[in-house]
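fyi for ur records
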Amino acid sequence: MTKTSHRIWKYGDNINTDVIFPGKYTYTISHDPQELARHALEDLDPTFAARARMGDVIVAGRNFGNGSSREQAVTCLKHAGVRAVIAHSFARIYYRNAINNGLLAIECPPIVDCVETGDLLKLDMAAHEIRACERTFAFAPLPAEVRVILDAGGLIPYLLAEL
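which gave:
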């Protein structure tokens, strides 16, 4: 188990990309990481961007990241310091964008009903376990191909390292 505890932000089902990163900024904000981070979850939780800390974890319900395929919905969370998103399930495109951009996305349905915002969890990638609520939750191991992309920080850094 990691020695680091991660603070949880909990949200519900069907959190779409428009509330993860508001669509009104899609073409008006540059790709400046700090500017993207300032608008993370703005329409869902106006306090998130100001209060998020490096290493925080989002726990959410079903279909996290549904909606458009905009990458800002991943990168704004990553640059806000989010270590991982743990959800009951992910929208397919969001899940792939998370991997491509180096944001850990884990499906672990049982944890959703256990935790609340402000709780702490410990994440053990080697054992494929999450410890929270005085319980241990197992999750499916990530494929080796996904792990190397995440370890590199995303698909582009991975490909550049392979050149």
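Residues 6-162 form a domain with the Aconitase; domain 4 fold (CATH 3.20.19.10). thats all i got for now
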